[in-house]
Amino acid sequence: MAHFAMATGFLLILIGAWGALTNRNLLRMIIAFTIADSGVNLVIIAVGYMHGRTAPILDSAVAAADAVQRIIDPVPQALVLTAIVIGVGVTALMLAYVYRLYEKRRSLDIGDFTELKG
Amino acid sequence: MSALYIIAVGLGSAFLLGLLNERQRGLAYMITLAALTIMSAISASWLLIFAATGAHPIDILTAGTQPPFAINLRMGLVESALTLLINLTGLLAAIHMGDSLLAKGRRAMAVLVIAIMALCGIVLTRDIFNLFVFFELIVIATGGLVLLSDADDNGRAVSAGFKYLIVSQFISILLLIGIIFAYHATGTLNIDGMAEIVGSGIKPELATAFSLAFFLMFIAVVAELKPFPANGWALDIYESAHPGFSAIFSAATGSAALFAVDKLLLIGGADWLPVATGIGIVTFVGANLLALPQTNDRRLLGYSSIAQTGLVLTILGQQDILGEHTLFIAGGLLFAHAVAKAGLYWLSDFVATRSLTGWAALQERPLLVFAFVTFAAMLAGLPPFPGFYAKWELVHILAAEGRLALLALILFGALVEAGYLFRWFGYLIKREPDQEVSCNTVQIIPVFAAVLAGWALGFVWGELSGHSNLLLVLPLLFALAFLLLEWAPAWFKNTLAIGGMVTFFLQTYAEYDPLRLIFAVIFMIGGAVTLLASYHAHGRRIGFYPAAMLMFAGMILLIRATDTFGFFASWELLTVGSYFLILRGKHSEPHALSYIIFSLGGAFLILTAFALAAAAVPPAPTFAIASLGELVQPVAPWVFLLLAVGFMTKTAAIGVHIWLPGAHAEAETDVSPMVSGILLKAGLYGLFVLLMTMGKQSLYGVELTYVMLWIGAITALLGNLMAIFQEDAKRLLAYSSIGQMGYAMFGLALMNHLGWLLALMFVINHYIYKSMLFLSVGGVAKRTGTREMYKMGGLITLMPLSFIATLIGIIAVSGVPPLSGFGGRWIFYNAILTADSRLPMVLIFLAGPIAFLYLFRLIHTIFLGQLKDEHRRIKEAPFWIILPQMIYVALLMVVAVVPGMVLRHVDAYISRFFPEGALNWEGMSITSQFGYWNPVAIMIIVGVIFMLLFSWLLFVNRKAQKVKQFNIVFSAERPFRPETTHFAWNFFAPYRKAMGFLVQPFVTRFWETVTDLLHTAADITRRLYNGNGQIYAFHFLVFVVAVFAMKMGI
């Protein structure tokens, strides 16, 4: 299961990266990045997964005393929450950029924004 | 106050700004400034504590738990210094961008504060995931600020910001994956914990996974440094963002990212140091090369920022050998870069156009020019700034460890950098300003805060260096004091300068041995006499005195230097001072540039030689110059070679002479004698010291002094040959200096008693007559308004004193009796009779009569012949230009009559090195083993012959008819003909036909080709940066793969 999730995660990253490098449309690039971000998140979760264990929530089902033996590693889960939040922030910022770029040039083609170079 | 408050104040005030009303902009701005001030104050207080007590770093726990269960921050000396740098940059940038921030409102301010907070976070945190979060905050804040600060409103900054975001996405993907797998392998996110686990050995089954994970983290953080060539995305931001923000991006972001790389290297260990070095040095050299063809000022600064960051990365990669010095070196370079770059970005806001030449607008504001000079000198690593001390230390350690290739690359990159910086400065000073400077008082504050910080850092690094602090050295302080006196009239400053030099000489003359005393007299008293000519200048003459006194201070310190550090520092000081001085000439921009590049190149050779020498003996804090003599094979000949070439760039030996003619000819009237008559002697002094300490050396069986002999002979011949074909009187004198220096070098390289005496004779004579000739020709040029000799003529009656000076001067130079030049010749003939190198001697013999050919033209074309119609009313040169000439005439006479006055002491001194061949100075005549020379007798004989012939001439011509100029029946020349048909134009055409092939500008063409190649290579590489954000992302991925492949290959 974990391997499958991890493989899927990496596949998503590759798809996302490929999409971001080959699509000239700014919006498609952003979508590609969100796909890659999802892949990263999946990989993080998969790394923290341990076979046969339960979610890291200490309640009546899992007592604090034997939690170490029964729950999966909670750190990647905490990290992935942060990563998701940051991902949302960056995506929002990129969308704001696209909006502004479209306002200026009426174009969504990355090839139209090359006046700075050399 | 806990360092955590830096983060808390930053975050808190950003949230507070969010709560404000959109219209309360003034209040919002106040909060922003207050927050940044408090953050700076916290850093500053910690820095004071750590600097004063040397206390250990303090860990700050969060969430009340020990790491790795909660994030911990660390505040130590480095952290406090870096956060202070970041916070102050933020504060000053906020002040600089005041108008813009007020216009954009509280959101922009909040983003700015967040950016600064996050940068501090990168420095403080010891948690790898936290590091990632802060990096992402930087990305978002940078993106936000760029979006808000699209200064010129044409969308360029917006598209640049988008490219930045694209690449940042890739970087964060790599970083996250790296972090999670590193966590998986080590079980911790704490940087120190991770380093500990890696240090004690990772489980074998996880080792590969960890090294891959580490690679991803490492490359992602290194990418934040914008390594060459995967950095197109960052350059666009540098170019298009508000300069207030670009300053942060350059100074603060770069510094924080470098510290992050250092943290990662802590985890990675020694294996990864070569990778850092490799990426760093490629970035340093590559980015500097690409900066060469840039015309946009901010893009150039961007390239330079990237280059400097690359250099610091290189140093981090060398920490295995730099050890405890890493902090001093990396810190010196980093702070110099950060302060200077921030200052330059802020300064760029005062310039309306984005071309480098547009900076000429600053000309009208001496204070801003001073700021630019400070920043450029800091970047170029010149004394007395921190980069200089850092460079010295770095080169020494690299040489000691034998990492010579890296050393060469660093110096090459630094030379390229100095090249474009000084070219830019040349534009600033010499181009026509096409618009006004636009700045308000508030915006000037950050610039001068940076200037002050620069000088303060120079002082601190001087104190830390373990060498003498240059900012406490009297002659340099005296020179710098003139900066504060710029408001005063020129005559006042001139008097002060002369008084200062004479006083210093009187205070110190007893300390010098006879050889140094000669140079001391020329540098200090000679300088004072030459400065008499400067009384003719009116007004305040801004910029002249600091530059001139810097040069003199450098020369004075040079002869006083006892260790290699002092020697090298003064060498750089005199180089920089003379560069500023030369640049003052009307058309001297390109010549001053080639002067400084050749000189710095030579200085780097000297530096390398000193470092190699110091590496060959047991380690000591200083290396006495006298110890050069203790060096043995195989180092000694290399040290000799590098030093000799370094000194020869200053004496303009053939091959590295191309800077001299322009530099000396285009300089101002009173500057030419200083840089020719006096400054050239610094190079000779270097050669003297070199030969005195190291003596004969041979490399691969070739005796190096013999090579020098040849170079001296060829220089003498070709210098003189080139001089005869000049039409420009000052250029003629300049070329003649090349020849004269060739003679002196030849004498030195003879390596016998008389050879050295000859060289010293040339030191003295060349100083006197070349100063005199440059002054008289300069005075004539001032009056006639031209330096082309064929445009003059018949000035003997109008400018009789200048004529006398020139006549005496050329008699002295050409070495005919009765003046001191003959003494030189006499010693010379004796010297070569004792030497055994025949062929170079033939060349030297040939050079003699050639010298006469060009000297004769000075008299013949300028003072004799027909007076030009437009010169009918000109007067003698100004009094203050004539006065030193007359002093020189008197001096020449004295030296001619009693040469023994000076030379017998030197002769005795040289006997220490060459006991054989000393002259006998008994009575009025001087005896060698081949004959004797009685100056007074010769003077009398020549005088009598002259009087006899002259009276006879008067007698036989008593009935001759005086020919007036327009009596065209008698005068050979018809007036009002085109000047190119003037008889004195192309005077030596037949000689040119015969020997012209010798004076083809081969050397000039060679150096031009080198420069062209550099530019072409840069231009081709530039095409990589095609402006497409996607391509930049692709570059980045290729870069990652390439580094990976190389790392695995290593």
Characteristic key phrases:
heterodimer; A: 118 residues; Helix Hairpins; 4 helices; B: 1050 residues; mainly alpha; two-stranded antiparallel sheet
How would you sum up this structure in a few lines?
Chain A is mainly alpha-helical and 118 residues long. Chain A has helices at residues 2-22, 26-48, 67-70, 74-105.
Largest sheet of chain A: none
Number of helices of chain A: 4
Mean pLDDT of chain A: 89
Per the principal axes of the C-alpha atoms, what is the gross shape of chain A? elongated
Strand content of chain A: under 5%
- Poorly predicted ranges of chain A (pLDDT <50, ≥5 residues)? none
* SS strand fraction of chain B: under 5%
- What is the count of β-strands of chain B? 6
CATH fold description of chain A:
Helix Hairpins
The helix/strand class of chain A is mainly alpha
**pLDDT averaged residue by residue of chain B:** 90
Q: What pattern of helices and strands is seen along the backbone of chain A?
A: HHHH
Q: What is the alpha-carbon Rg of chain B in Å? A: 32 Å
Structural class per helix/strand content of chain B? mainly alpha
